[in-house]
Automatic annotation (TrEMBL):
Residues 73-274 form the ABC transmembrane type-1 domain. Keywords: Cell membrane, Membrane, Transmembrane, Transmembrane helix, Transport. The chain crosses the membrane at residues 12-34, 73-96, 108-128, 140-160, 181-206, 255-274. The keyword GTP-binding does not apply. It is found in: Cell membrane. It is a multi-pass membrane protein. InterPro entries: MetI-like, MetI-like_sf. This is Carbohydrate ABC transporter permease. It comes from Halalkalibacter kiskunsagensis. Pfam families: BPD_transp_1. Belongs to the binding-protein-dependent transport system permease family.
Length: 289
């Protein structure tokens, strides 16, 4: 059908408006990227840099020469990898158990899971629990308090409910127990959901800030987000600690921009590999056949 004049005008206006919104949204990221690669001397000479005449890696070299910065990257990587694996194991196994109709007491446990969604214990009870467990200044304190999410358990249970019960029954007839059927039959069919929830958990662990600030008093165990927050507050480069004194520190603004780019690049690199599973995984179980 041929679009009317009014529809064409609306489409053009809509495209222009959304283009402006996209431009306004993307400009801060572009500016952070450009400043991080700007030659320090050029940045000091100009009030604003939209495109540098001289590109430089000085800020990145200075950051990566700081032991505390590299260590914080290692801490964040540990939280993202180990935390994501632990969260996926706990969430997927609990969701699978709740999806099995023959599991006695599953309705009561499901009510407990729903209760955690509606009522959160708060900061003080969580802190007291972590302290009594002796996990203060331990990276496991950050992982354990974020180990699972009631909402994710419900969503993954909905996915497992969409898998035909006959597949598990056929595996049982062939000699598989519940655990073997979950490992060999259900999990391979769950890759889209695992990828989607794995991305959610990985982003959450990589961006851990408040829990790390609350439970980790040792600065050597801070993840990248806590160190970045200190850098953004501190106008100097002293928050980086041990840096080669022979290296000339770049302007603090270029250091901050370079730190922001380094902090967001790992997630940007992971997302394309999971994108095809992500789009499918978030929709599975949303429609009941």
């Amino acid at each position: 059908m041929k679009a009317s004049l009014g529809n064409r005008i609306f489409d053009i206006a809509n495209i222009i408006f959304l283009g402006l919104v996209a431009l306004v949204s993307a400009f801060p990221i572009y500016y952070v990227f450009i400043v991080s690669f700007t030659e320090p001397a050029e940045f000091l000479q100009k009030s604003i840099v939209l495109f540098p005449e001289n590109w430089s890696l000085a800020s990145y070299k200075y950051l990566l020469s700081a032991g505390s910065f590299v260590q914080s990257l290692g801490v964040s990587s540990f939280l993202a990898v180990v935390g994501t694996v632990c969260s996926l194991v706990i969430t997927s196994s609990l969701a699978y158990a709740l999806s099995r109709k023959k599991f006695k007491g599953r309705k009561f446990i499901l009510l407990l899971v729903l209760f955690t969604i509606l009522f959160n214990p708060g900061i003080i009870p969580n802190y007291l629990l972590v302290r009594e467990l002796g996990l203060i200044d331990s990276l496991w304190s950050v992982i354990l308090v974020s180990l699972s999410n009631g909402w994710f358990v419900i969503l993954m249970k909905g996915f497992y409910d969409s898998i035909p019960e006959t597949l598990v029954e056929a595996a049982t007839i062939d000699g598989c127990n519940d655990f073997t059927a979950w490992i060999r039959i259900v999990l391979p069919l769950s890759l889209p959901a695992i990828a989607a929830f794995g991305l959610f958990f990985a982003v959450a662990y990589w961006n851990q800030y408040f829990n790390a600030l609350l439970y980790l008093n040792d600065a050597s165990k801070w993840p990248i987000q806590v160190l970045l927050q200190n850098m953004l507050i501190d106008s100097s480069s002293s928050s980086l600690g041990d840096v080669d004194p022979l290296m000339q520190p770049p302007p603090s603004e270029t250091l901050k921009m370079a730190a922001v780019i380094i902090a967001i690049v790992p997630i940007l690199m992971v997302y394309p590999f999971l994108q095809k599973h992500f789009a499918k995984g978030v929709m599975i179980g949303s429609i009941k056949e």
